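Extended Data, panel c. Modelled sequence:
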Amino acid sequence: MLLKIRRRFDALRIVLYVQHPAHSSPERSEECRQRRSRAMWLPAAAAEAGGGDWGLTSVLTPMRGTKSWVLLPGQGQV
């Protein structure tokens, strides 16, 4: 797992990389994506309340994995 938190251009960006092997079936892969989406409820609420954005995407590394990110604009000093 790798967590990056960065302030740039008056926005706070939080990125979490979680590496795990690819799933053996499309159904398992979709189930995993839905579980990760549900786990993002708090960052998603913060992003939506502050006019930001969030998302999940696959990571193209040999072990595969997922990148979850949140962008919170105008957060001032960190």
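The mean pLDDT is 81. This feature is highlighted in the accompanying rendering.
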